[in-house]
Design a protein that fits this description.
Elements: H1 2-25, E1 47-55, E2 64-69, E3 72-76, H2 81-87, E4 91-93
Parallel strand pairs: 1-4
Antiparallel strand pairs: 1-2, 2-3
């Protein structure tokens, strides 16, 4: 009886190892950064490039326009006038 228990235990253990190692093959999924807060201050002089991205609200993310700056991404309020002026001259990317 102990041989049967040992065999079943080894079988289950090897199945767990196979499943966990095959999950690692796919690799981690890369999520885009999420804006949880936006600025209302006119940061247009800091914006570089000619593209922007829209972010829809989905907790914890908020509605935002995302610009690139020398220091990283800038999350701006889409309802502010300077953001609307700037996006009208730029190209939207996905």
């Amino acid at each position: 009886m102990s041989v049967k228990i040992l065999s079943v235990t080894l079988l289950l253990l090897s199945m767990c190892v196979c499943f966990s190692s095959s999950a690692g093959i796919r690799g981690p999924t890369k999520k885009r950064p999420c804006c949880v807060d936006v600025t209302n201050l006119d940061m247009s002089p800091e914006v570089v490039g000619e593209t922007y991205r829209e972010q829809a609200s989905s907790y914890p993310c908020v509605n935002a326009i995302i610009f690139n700056t020398e220091y990283g991404q800038l999350c701006a309020d889409p309802n502010v006038q300077w953001v609307q002026n700037l996006t009208s001259t730029m190209k939207k990317v996905q």
